[in-house]
Amino acid sequence: MKKSLVPRVVAMPSPVWVVGSYDANDHPNIMTVAWGGICCSAPPCLTISLQKTRLTYTNIFQQKAFTVNIPSTNYIVETDYAGIASGKNDDKFTTTGLTPIRSDIVNAPYVKEFPLTFECKLLHAVEIGLHTQFIGQILGIKADDEVLDQNGVPVVGMVKPMISSASDRAYYAFGECLGQAYYQGLKLVDKNKNETNSHSPSK
Question: Residue ranges of the Flavin reductase like domain (predicted)?
Fold first, then answer.
């Protein structure tokens, strides 16, 4: 039996992304976010949601650009710190030992040590409530060679990203592969065809 819950943000899982940006003085900053995802395929876009009090919020509006960096599970400490500390009071790159690299496509830094980065220009900003949703058009992608397959596509098992759960405020690693997308459901397509044919009147 299902139980009704009070509306709150306990959808799961959420990505663990580290957003890179420059402030007005060209100083690099990073911030960990969980409210984000892909939002359009043409043009390729992703979205993140930030509170107005965050330095990254101001930076993105000023620079009209940001990066989304996907850390591997090896960087859980640095990633968590980037979400705890404020760039207003701390140089998070120095504290974590991570390396800022200036994007050659957008005016934002990315994290050298993280295996996958999306370079985005600000396309839209939507005021929702406590959070503002930033939609960024992906203009470039940086990926380590070792996380790419033979077709040059990033593979989740090689990137080893983290996911988060808002309900228990915890990080998780990805588990086993359950099957290929757009293939599992074909079993029901075939089943439906067989059942339809079996009930069709004979000619």
Answer: 12-153
Q: Give strand pairing partners of 28.
A: 22
Residue carrying the six token digits 């996907």: 70
User: Predicted confidence band at 198 (pLDDT cuts at 50, 70, 90)?
Assistant: low
Contact (CB, 8 A) for 116 and 155? no
CATH numbers and ranges of domains, the chain: 14-199 (2.30.110.10)
So what's the pLDDT on residue 11?
A: 87
Q: What share of the chain is helix, strand, coil (3-state, %, to 5)?
A: 25, 40, 40
Beta bridge partners of 29: 21
Residue 189 has a pLDDT of 84
The two structure tokens encoding residue 82:
């980037």
Among residues 49, 10, 71, 33, which one has the least CA distance to residue 136?
49
Burial of residue 83, with CB atoms counted within 10 A of its CB: 0-12 exposed, 13-18 middle, 19 or more buried: middle
The answer to whether residues 83 and 48 touch, using CB atoms and an 8 Å cutoff, is no
Secondary element (H or E) of residue 142: strand 131-143
User: What is the DSSP pairing of strand 65-70 with strand 116-127?
Assistant: antiparallel
The answer to whether residue 113 scores a pLDDT higher than 80 is: yes
Kindly report, residue by residue over 121-173, the tens digit of the pLDDT: 999 999 999 999 999 999 999 999 999 999 999 999 999 999 999 999 999 99
Distance CA 106, CA 120 (A): 7
